[in-house]
Write a structure and sequence with these properties.
The chain is mainly α and 112 residues long. The protein has helices spanning 4-9, 14-20, 25-36, 40-50, 53-69, 73-87, 94-111. The chain starts with a helix and ends with a helix.
């Protein structure tokens, strides 16, 4: 089960996330659940596998906003890198870039 301490141990900026949720821990965890279970994560994975860089950019950019507002720093940092690479249409292995995002997200979802 996720706790504030466990999130902090994972590198999540819970102080910032809680402040955006008016200091209400229960509300923050509800928003975390909604954000982490967002279908856009699966859609992004599919689009990246298909090589659809334009739609992948849109999904990554939207998700970056979601995880940024929740202060899920480890995902935010990786999504920021992915988003900027997609924006520049760099020739990269995007599926590999997405892998640590997916793994961390799945880890958090499993512990919710």
């Amino acid at each position: 089960m996720l706790t504030i301490q466990k999130l902090q141990d994972y590198g999540v900026n819970t102080k910032e996330g809680l402040s955006r949720c008016m200091g209400m821990e229960k509300f923050y965890f509800r928003m975390l659940g909604m954000g982490l279970k967002n279908d856009a994560f699966d859609k992004l994975e599919k689009l990246l596998a298909e090589g659809n860089l334009e739609e992948s950019f849109e999904q990554a950019h939207a998700l970056k906003g979601v995880v940024g507002n929740l202060a899920i720093t480890p995902i935010f940092a990786n999504l920021s890198e992915l988003t900027e690479s997609l924006r520049a249409k760099k020739d990269l292995d995007y599926v590999s870039l997405y892998k640590p995002i997916k793994e961390f997200r799945d880890k958090l979802v499993a512990e919710l």
